[in-house]
Amino acid sequence: MNTPHRLLVAITTVLGCVLPASFVQSQYDPHPAGIDYQEDYRNQFHFSPKSEWMNDINALIYADGQYHMLYQWGKAIRHGGYATSPDLLHWEDEGVALIPQESFLPAEAERNVSGAQVYSGSGVVISGETAKKITGSTKEAMVMIYTGTKAGTCIAWSNDGGTTWHDYSGNPVANRTKGADPRDPCVFFHEPTNKWILALYENGTTLYGSDDLVEWKQLSNIDFGFECPDMFELPLDGNTDNKKWVLHDANGSYLVGQFDGVRFTPEQETLVMDVGPDFYAGQTFFRPNLPSGDVIQIAWNDHWNGGIGESPWERNATFPVKIGLVTHEGKMKVTRTPIQAIKTIYQDTTTWTNKTITSQDENGGLLKDVRAEAFDLTATFDLSDTNADQLVFQIANKEIVYDIEKQLLLGKPLKPDDDNKLTIRMLVDWSSLEVFSAGGVFSYSEQFAFTPDDESVRLFTRGGKVALEKLQLNRVKSTW
């Protein structure tokens, strides 16, 4: 989205001073000239910063009619990057919201960024007396709770829609430390106990409780998780009378169980919500004021895998998904499903029904006239009468293979449904591949260097034929 840069930095020091935007602009300008979002590998309908390196999603908030996303930005020193969207599809990179500082430490007399960084966290919306204690006003405010290295668990706030962000003058509010551990606070409001809950990466996951986001009391600990916890409640199989809590970590490993406001009690073994190589640090929106009330998640699309040579930015976010919870193969499993709003950015749609796919299609076939680099494709196959060994989607220089005999998609276990049907959905976007199946139980995220300007899409088999019931390909418009 080629709009003028709006720098949103206002950081309070221990003296309560606000850093002038000109100071921040001169040292932390994230918007060099000449960026048009048409660079090789630049996602067209996934968020990426205009420049520099992004990683963990830090806070997802809906307020003032907009979706707000804070994320880690900057490779040498982590800052709090900031973006906004009216619809979760069209994002505006707003620049930097949070600057690292060490001035919370009693011995520090002046601001010194050397060694201090803004590490991961989460976001909430507050008002009334809670807001007054933090911001000085009862006006509704967005709050980010984050790890300030060489400080501890800190909070930053904005009550003008994100135009300015301020660090709370009483930081750190918990976990004072001279290092980076413990870290990655996830905060949510627990209505049954009328308390704020903080899940922290600390000897597994430690839970804290608070009445005001400032004073925190340790509640319990569970031996689970590595970095960036997130925690939320969902109805199982859509039954609102049977809700379960999900606790997951940065790797997408998760537990399902009960939470009584003090302790999380798992009811089954650890599972994984995404089996691809590049899902990391997924976070969900603060729910109480989210228009849909759904659990909406965005993650970092890179599992510290080194990238693909993209420039002048590095890495991107996954597409927003709705999180669900279903009974599948005798276990309670998380589902990830792209948000319905993606339909509003379809450029055009082509549908094929009741076709036979063979090995001869490798040299042409059903999709020989398709040209697409950014698209949402869903295909359903009937495997009840097939003699093929594999189903293959060839997207430019990438093969997405389903091994029919071994029941593996992209090398990961995936069985057809009970009537031997297999539905595969994939979002392809210049350097992002996200694949979903089994109603979202199967989720696979990968950053991949699709050959620039290669718009070819093919579908064929190896070793025989397969019945295709329906294939729908929706080319997606650029959101930039």
TrEMBL record:
InterPro entries named in the record: ConA-like_dom_sf, Glyco_hydro_32, Glyco_hydro_32_C, Glyco_hydro_32_N, Glyco_hydro_beta-prop_sf
Mind listing the UniProt keywords for this protein, alphabetically?
A: Glycosidase, Hydrolase
- Which SUPFAM superfamilies has this protein been placed in? Arabinanase/levansucrase/invertase (SSF75005), Concanavalin A-like lectins/glucanases (SSF49899)
Give GO terms for biological process: sucrose catabolic process
Q: By its UniProt entry, which Gene3D superfamilies does this protein fall under?
A: Exo-inulinase, domain 1, Glycosyl hydrolase domain, family 43
Q: Which residues form the Glycosyl hydrolase family 32 C-terminal domain?
A: 345-473
Q: Enumerate the spans annotated as Glycosyl hydrolase family 32 N-terminal domain.
A: 46-331
Q: So which domain of life are we looking at?
A: Bacteria
The yes or no answer to whether the keyword Hydrolase is present is yes
How is this protein annotated for GO cellular component? cytoplasm
GO function terms (MF aspect): sucrose alpha-glucosidase activity
UniProt feature coiled coil, ranges: none
Q: What family does the entry list?
A: Belongs to the glycosyl hydrolase 32 family.
Protein name as annotated = Fructosidase
Q: Which organism is it from?
A: Rhodopirellula bahusiensis
